[in-house]
Amino acid sequence: MNLLGKLSWDAIPFDQPIPMTASAVVALIIIGVLAWIVIAGHLPYLWREWITSVDHKRIGVMYTLLACVMLVRGFADALMMRSQQALAFHSAGYLPPEHYNQVFSAHGTIMIFFGAMPFVIGLMNFVVPLQLGVRDIAFPTLNSVSFWLTATGALLVNISLVIGEFARTGWLPYPPLSELQYTPGVGVDYYLWAVQIAGVGTLLTGINFVTTILKIRAPGMTYLRMPMFCWTALAANLLIVAAFPVLTATLAMLTLDRYLGFHFFTNEAGGNMAMFVNLIWAWGHPEVYILVLPAFGIFSEVFSTFSGKPLFGYRSMVIATMFICLVSFMVWLHHFFTMGAGANVNAVFGIATSIIAVGTGVKIYNWMFTMYGGRVRFATPMLWSLGFMVTFTIGGMTGVLLAVPPADFMLHNSLFLVAHFHNVIIGGVLFGLFAGFTYWFPKAFGFRLHEGWGRATFWFTLTGFYLVFMPLYIVGLMGMTRRLQHYDVPEWYPWMLVAGFGMILMIAGVACQITQLVVSIRERESLRDTTGDPWDGRSLEWATASPPPPFNFAVLPHVEDTEVYWSIKQRAIQQQRLRDEPAYAPLEMPRSSPTGVVCAFFATMMGFALIWHIWWLLALGAVGAYATFVVFAWRDVPDYVIPADEVARIDRENRSARAGWLAYAGRRP
Amino acid sequence: MTTTDISATDPYWTGHHAQAAAGHGAGGPASKRIIVGYGFWIFLLSDIVMFSAFFAAYAVLRDATAGGPRGAELFNLRNVAIETACLLASSFTCGLASLSVQARRSGWFYAAMTLTFGLGATFILLEAREFADLVARGAGPTRSAFLSAFFTLVGCHGLHVTCGLLWLLTMMAQIFAKGFRADILRRFLCFSLFWHALDIIWVALFTVVYLMGVHA
Question: What's this model's pTM, rounded to 2 decimal places?
Fold first, then answer.
């Protein structure tokens, strides 16, 4: 028996310069960062304050950091695809087909599972408890486990760059191509275990947040007093709880086919590959809304704050959100109209799909009316939101077009489709995440991001986006299918060059964003947010200091209306005084725990062992994971106490900052 | 008691609202017991959604026997009836364990949990014997899509029961080592919910797979 399963030196692609160079650079960066951390003595601090932290704010920041790194990785894949297609007219380009196929599979997988998802979950982690006016989420240690399992998935995808290969089957591994018979390598196995492990993490997040939002809110905060972002987070997490188990089951079936010779989706012995397509999209379509609904929540916060007005049509917004949440489960078949379900079935799903646009339309009008008559400030978050409104509307309209089955028969599998979903995911989800990132950054770190570099990022990304994706609509209408490694149609070529040029602007956008972060950190003293309320905000996260203390609120706020902090602020300005100092009590907060990171260590071990069929390592990982569970279950002191005078000291700092601001606000006309 | 229930001491979890209607509407944060139980219910619902995907796959592939044996030729209702009896009885004994916990009677608790373990283990053994028998008769999961779906659906439930047995032993060890502490009691609440939920899934499974299978 081979001790290392299928693993041997052949797994490392020494003959392929691109992955070898890329992974060598990444490895050098990782080793460099780790060496710097250890030599500079930051490791104990990182371990104590971040890696083992169960504070929702810290976990939120770590999720966002992971997402940003993986967005850059996914962007590098995008760069390779666009440059390949710009070069591969009457030529083979520079990426061989088997490598090109891995690139587009990795791009989709990374962007959805390890870019967009952790970014959305990171912002929810950071913001939702603050907006609900509470001290933590329902299960803090479980939250840490969720994060580290997501990181495990991301790690496995990146390991596949050096050891073995990644899937060549697209971001959703359709059988029979993904079955062992046609893809005997480890690529699909990397995909399966990376997504499965990260998916479990996401499911646990969903359970955690549904429980938090439904059971842990500040006194007085009824459902219809929750900020819009909390509503959209609730909808997204309900979708996670209902949809991710389907993904788990579907991937498990494909895994059984590949590992144990089952026949769920095989060509022979009665397997049914159409069932895979149905099941995966029963998860996949709600997934789209898991991503975009929280982005809608962010836009709602941003439009309202930067227009200086309450959100227009709050209740209709809630209804539209929950309507989308429900109907998103009834449209999955529009992803495969051409599979042959028949005209009547297609018609039902086409109509349901078009109806979803009604909910979104309600939202677009509400945001416009929120701005109407307001004193609109065009800060960076607002620019992203306005860019979203125009871009997303175009993407939505091409979506409605694709929802018409006869049109879909012409357009499916073309670059028109690719342009459509990038139009809604970049224009909707990513713009929303960038808006939220800029909006809540000062709350997390105590200083604002540099405005000039933020604007530059926005304009480069927006124009770059249009230059890349509008040509793809056009070549899609001309009949260019997706995932082409090379082509020889002269009419497509100029458009591919335009799209390639657009990528240069997108690169400038990424560069500006990184510069913005560096410049803002260097100039943090001049960008400092001393008041805790840099944007003249309206919801409770702006009532605490920036960054908030571990306990968020010294005393739980009392909620009497929808815009809690706005009313508190107006009352303070009117009366020219803060509310009386409350009586401070000692607070119990959950203790840090290495459970999450240790779990992830064993999960990585098990995932790697399963991919390479190293069975002893799998057993070792399983025993280790169970031991971790028992050690956690055996601990006697889950909480630590922050003494009352410490709470008082921290809260008085926040109060004196507010008092200073109040004196200033009083002088304003 | 080294750890007190946080809900009893921290104003965060109590306050005057908490007495009125914590966790509802305007009542402020719910107590820890409510939060843990509620969260575990959400997990159980997600688990049931996962099973529903396996049920759907089974329903789709039921007739995809690829010329191999059908359910009616394979299922032994007598064996399945004994399995069902074991599992339902184990739910009853698990209920007895809950009552003993409420009454803080550790002797009864260990007895009821041991019985639960015995019944659960018998169920697993019977199921394993059924699986081994099917494989020996050439009706293993690789024979046809129908058998793949059958083994996965029933096996997934079996895997849940096996994990439940491991949890049961861990739970007994916890009560032995830590006593009836508030956080341990919350965990026991989750365990009992889990054990009863497995029964609910089994009732559906017994009906859809076995009863409907032998009549097809």
Answer: 0.92
